[in-house]
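Late entry, evening session. Most of the bench is empty. Finally got around to the prediction I had been postponing all week. Sequence below, unchanged from the version circulated by S.P.
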Amino acid sequence: MEDFQIYILQVNAGLVVFYLLYRMLFSRDTFLRIRRLFLFSDLVDKTQFDALFTFIFSPRPGTPAAKMPDPVSREEKQVWFEKLVDAQNAISAKKHASYIGRTVKVLVDGESDDAEFPLAARTEGNRLVRMKGDKALIGTFAKAKITDSNTWALYGEAVEE
């Protein structure tokens, strides 16, 4: 796994926020690239992170990386990026779906931009919850019954404690 460098930047309330840098060696060998891609997919599957903050690297002017050759085309990077995002989205959606039917404690921190679920809240594990309820709950802890989910958020309604 020498091709991977994982930096844990912050651990907060049980949620690991991290920056994952995948560095392909500067080889043009297609077999090695495919092998590394599978190793990376395996790493994502085994770690089961809640979410990834991902981007395609672009060199910044004036840095040593800007002077280095780039043996990987933008198109190939896009394919890798999409495979990574697809793998992580499936993991995130599955984790969020496991909350459906549960009642969780949330901090209602404001209004959302969703008319059907007008409140925005966060679980103790920092998961985003869009919820139905009275705006008077903003700024308070409340219980939310989770009724639906997607890759990025949980959906629910405020319930009496």
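Two things to note before I forget:
The helical segments are 30-47, 74-97.
The longest helix spans residues 74-97.
Will write this up properly tomorrow.
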